[in-house]
Here is the input.
Amino acid sequence: LLSHSLLDSVTTGGKGVGWLWPWSDERFFAPWQVIKVAPFALSRYATPYGHQVIFSELLWVWLPGVMMMGVLWWYRRH
Here is the structure.
């Protein structure tokens, strides 16, 4: 849950993250938005914007995740 809300806070769209709900309706974004918002229509992934979305997800979500898994795997083996 924490990683999902953190990733949502760095996207380029949406209404922000309701970290203080139910005590407050205020929504938050991180100081930087680097992950492009994914289109709802699957066909839009074949457009230049769709390619930017895929690259953004690979760079800011998958690459750090794979690197973290590698570090944890290495740490566990030693």
Q: What stands out?
A: The chain has a mean pLDDT of 93. Residues 7 and 61 are 8 Å apart (CA to CA). DSSP finds two helices and no strands in the chain. The two ends are 29 Å apart (CA to CA).
